[in-house]
């Protein structure tokens, strides 16, 4: 079996209503996916996290390395792609391009061997995962707190056991919003906050101190990802667990977070940090320091399924007879591509999502949907 084609698609969905967070506004969901095909008719699908058009260019630049190669040997192919880009792209978007291809190769390998990816990764420590609803972004207009409170209540009504909300407007505004949301959802629902590195160390410490009483599950990206020592210092100033890693790439970037004792929770994004191959290595690094791993997930059902398999394979830390539930990020913002691209439909039952047991990543891609959302004319 040999790879004979690597195809990329940039998919675009114009939003009915824009939303924003501490850094910028979204009016469109734009995502790059990749399809890797073999000479015997099998295909695997992957996805990159980041600027879609640049990721597409990156995949096209490394695709010739894959043609004629055996997709089963995904670690060898990963190293070939890494070595090809090492001199000029040790971090960033080209790492996301490698990630997209790597996810597709794992999908292909699972289909070729008729096994779920998580089994191929070494086995499933769990068969179901707790999704947390990512939402509560900011919108323009009046009554923001009322809108966010209602959105949070809707997630609880739909059965979510955990919610992550955005902060980063200002310490004063954030405190008011967080307190209102916590009051609305009660004390049984896990609540996390994410500032997308909006704050200085002083501001982040102030915000953490003022919302500690709200029982915050973790404070995500409180400060710039460049300041590892600020992460470490913030951990000493609050009882709220500190999370980060969305902006890191490869095991070498995550090693910096770990060596600096920067986080309580490591948030590897499989579709940008190096794919499933590298994410498994990163998880091993984290385990040597007893640091919890909860992946960042943003995109389509491809990324979500990859994260499900990754989490299924994660070793519990610490091990015990009845290990705690593991969480997966479940983006609930408007995204027509996410909802329609893959089948079967992702379903939450009693607050859990089952780990797919079908071969590969456990989904089929509707290529009519690919054509519908593609930014290029497809025949």
From TrEMBL:
Listed cofactors: Mg(2+)
Claim: Ubl conjugation is one of the keywords in the record: no
CDD domains: MR_like
A Pfam family recorded for this sequence: MR_MLE_N
Domain Mandelate racemase/muconate lactonizing enzyme C-terminal: 145-241
GO molecular function: hydro-lyase activity; magnesium ion binding; racemase and epimerase activity
GO biological process entries: carbohydrate catabolic process
Gene3D superfamilies: Enolase-like C-terminal domain, Enolase-like, N-terminal domain
Signal keyword on record: no
Protein name, per record: Mandelate racemase/muconate lactonizing enzyme family protein
């Amino acid at each position: 079996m040999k790879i004979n084609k690597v195809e990329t698609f940039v998919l675009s969905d114009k939003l009915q209503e824009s939303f924003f967070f501490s850094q910028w506004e979204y009016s469109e969901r734009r995502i790059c996916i990749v399809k890797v095909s073999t000479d015997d008719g099998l295909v695997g699908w992957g996805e990159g996290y980041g600027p879609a058009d640049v990721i597409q260019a990156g995949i096209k630049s490394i695709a010739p390395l894959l043609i004629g190669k055996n997709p089963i040997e995904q670690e060898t192919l990963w190293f070939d792609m890494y070595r090809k880009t090492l001199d000029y792209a040790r971090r960033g978007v080209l790492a996301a391009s490698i990630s997209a291809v790597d996810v597709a190769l794992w999908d292909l390998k699972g289909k070729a061997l008729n096994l779920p990816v998580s089994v191929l990764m070494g086995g499933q420590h769990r068969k179901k995962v707790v999704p947390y609803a990512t939402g509560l972004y900011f919108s323009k207009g009046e009554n923001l707190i009322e809108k966010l409170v209602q959105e949070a209540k809707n997630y609880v009504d739909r059965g979510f056991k955990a919610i992550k909300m955005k902060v980063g407007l200002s310490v004063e505004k954030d405190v008011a919003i967080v307190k209102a949301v916590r009051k609305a959802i009660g004390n049984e629902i896990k609540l996390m906050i994410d500032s997308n590195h909006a704050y200085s160390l002083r501001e982040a410490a102030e915000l953490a101190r003022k919302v500690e009483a709200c029982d915050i599950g973790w404070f995500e990206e409180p400060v710039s990802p460049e300041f590892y020592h600020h992460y470490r210092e913030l951990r000493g100033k609050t009882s709220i667990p500190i999370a980060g890693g969305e902006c890191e790439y490869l095991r070498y970037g995550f090693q910096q977070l770990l060596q600096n004792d920067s986080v309580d929770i490591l948030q590897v994004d499989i579709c940008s940090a190096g794919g499933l191959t590298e994410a498994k290595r990163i998880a091993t690094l984290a385990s040597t320091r007893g640091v919890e791993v909860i992946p960042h997930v943003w995109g389509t059902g491809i990324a979500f399924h990859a994260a499900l398999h990754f989490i299924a394979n994660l070793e519990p830390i610490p091990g015990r007879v009845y290990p705690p539930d593991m969480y997966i990020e479940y983006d609930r913002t408007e995204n027509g591509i996410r909802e329609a691209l893959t089948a079967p439909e992702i379903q939450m039952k009693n607050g859990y999502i089952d780990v797919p047991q079908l071969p590969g990543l456990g989904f089929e891609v509707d290529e009519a949907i690919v054509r519908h959302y593609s930014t290029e004319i497809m025949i």
